[in-house]
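QA checklist item 7 of 12: single-chain prediction sanity check.
[x] sequence parsed
[x] length recorded as 200
[x] structure emitted
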Amino acid sequence: VGRPNSYIFRPGDTIMSLLNLGGGPVPDRADLRRAVLRRQNSSELIPIDLYAMLYRGDISQNYELRDGDTLNIPEANRLLVLVQGKIARPGVYPYKEPMTLADAISSAGGEFPGRSRLSRTLVIRERAGQPGQYQYIKADYVRFIRKGDQTQNILLQPGDLIFVPETNTPDVAQINGLVNTAFILNTFGSSLFGLNLFRR
């Protein structure tokens, strides 16, 4: 944000009120999809998609503020995705909103014909508000290519790791290695800065 600091707020103020106090997100620096609201004296971390709030008019996450709230917004230098496995050019690629699985695979040069198991593509994603915890999203990319099934062309998020296996059943060690890689990408690709709140 433009002015990270502690601010006094009034009853009825919301996340949007806080952003206005803080000068709003800094263009090209804030990872708007991964903001986290932390309540005072609570271990609860509430994921906030500021992109949806600011650019799509989604006010479902525009929560009313409480005394001691902290809003953390990751810096945008984590806006990367990693493509690994049986793909022409495995590597780290810039994330561009909106970015799909097809975009990432295309950026990485596409498949190895006859060797890539695109029907078993895996997207490994850090759980919102749970650093170091990951979810595994299966995608049948072949179904997307052949039948146009858009549900298989997953909308990506910054920090996602896309894995295209060579076999139908990647081994456990291989998956664990991918999770470690995703952790490094998400941990060292960004730092947090935030706003603290106190009731007037």
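[x] summary fact logged: The first helix runs from residue 15 to 21.
[ ] second reviewer sign-off
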